[in-house]
Structures are given as C-alpha cells and as structure tokens.
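Regression report. Comparing outputs from two consecutive submissions.

Submission 1:
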Amino acid sequence: MITYAILGITFLYAVIQIILYASRQRKPLTREDIDERLLAALNGGDTARG
C-alpha cells in the first residue's frame, strides 16, 4: 500500500514538472526579433523598448 502511495506521489510530481516545463517554454523568435537582437549586439547594447 505504501508503494502505491509513493508511486502516486512520484507520478503527480512528474506531471507537475512537465506542466511547469511546458508553460515556461517560449515561442520561437521571428526573423525581426533575431535581426533586432543581432543589431543590438553589434551596437554594444540592448535596444530601448517602449
């Protein structure tokens, strides 16, 4: 019985970790975002966002 409880807790922990990982994933960058970041790196700083 204790084994089933440990397995259940482990399963819930794994599911929660997978959900957290999936929610933290960012969408892929667009070509414009990449261009903006490269230009900012070449200029020696971050672009002002406003």
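Submission 2:
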Amino acid sequence: MSVRQQVLVLYLGTSALDSPVAGWSVYDGTGRTSPTTGDGDVPPYASGVEALRDGWRLFQAAQLIPPYPGGEYDVSFLKHEFFFEKLVEEAGVSVVRV
C-alpha cells in the first residue's frame, strides 16, 4: 500500500471554523479525480468544522491580519483560507525510495 494526499482548501466567511464556506478548491494526489476550481455550485462542506467531522485534518489556517486604516471595505483576496488534508491508501502503487 502507498499513501497519497488529498488537499481541501476552504475559504470561510470569517476566521471561525464554524463559519459558512465562501469558496473552495480540491486537489487529489491519488489521481482518481481531477476537480477544478468552479466546477460546482455547492461547496463540499458547509463549514470547516463539518470537514473536520468527515475526517479531514486541518494543517494550515490563515493569519489574522487587521485591515489597514481606511481599507476595511476594499475588495481583495479571500483572507480566511484554511487547508485540510486526507491521507488515502492507494493499492497497487509502488514507491521507489532513494
């Protein structure tokens, strides 16, 4: 057996893991699926907590950076970004170690 990583990126409405998902991306290191950004209208999970309950492991959360004075309403990147992973066993894949 070999292990491959799946990555889930959730952009939440606030810095709280139980806030609603505003955007998402999924990457599958197993090669079983090839999801792309914008390929669905419904997020895979309603919140970060829901992803945790389904077995995803949180490994990075966005830094909380206060807005610059006067910039509270500027449009920019989605700042509440959370990275999750699952390690999936893959049968029949051999890994060469050097």
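Expected: both submissions complete independently.
Actual: both completed, but the second showed a warning that disappeared on reload.
Relevant detail on submission 2: The two ends are 18 Å apart (CA to CA).
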